[in-house]
Amino acid sequence: MDFQVVDNAEENRFEIAVDGERAGAAYYRIHDDRIVFTHTEVQPQYEGKGVGSKLANGALTLAKERGLHIVAQCPFIAAYLKKHPELA
Length: 88
Fold this sequence. Notes:
By secondary structure, the chain is an alpha+beta fold. The protein has helices at 51-65, 75-83; strands spanning 3-8, 13-18, 21-31, 34-42, 69-72. It has a single domain, classed as 3-Layer(aba) Sandwich (Aminopeptidase). It contains two helices and five strands, in the order E-E-E-E-H-E-H. It has a five-stranded mixed β-sheet with strand order 1-2-3-4-5. The radius of gyration is 12 Å and the shape is globular.
């Protein structure tokens, strides 16, 4: 499977495509130098295949590269950060 995470800033969400098909999204709000992750979803046909983890990793990496401070209101993103504190 080919994964690609992109920022759809107009919709305030990072999207993940699997083999060119949208498979999920991590929604956010930007406040000054903070990005607040509010909700993450993966399409049912992609659940249990690591798509959520790839999405979280890509979204957090892109936010970190922009120098944004991460606030994880989304339980999925918060759990991912506990397992991967280097992205916090």
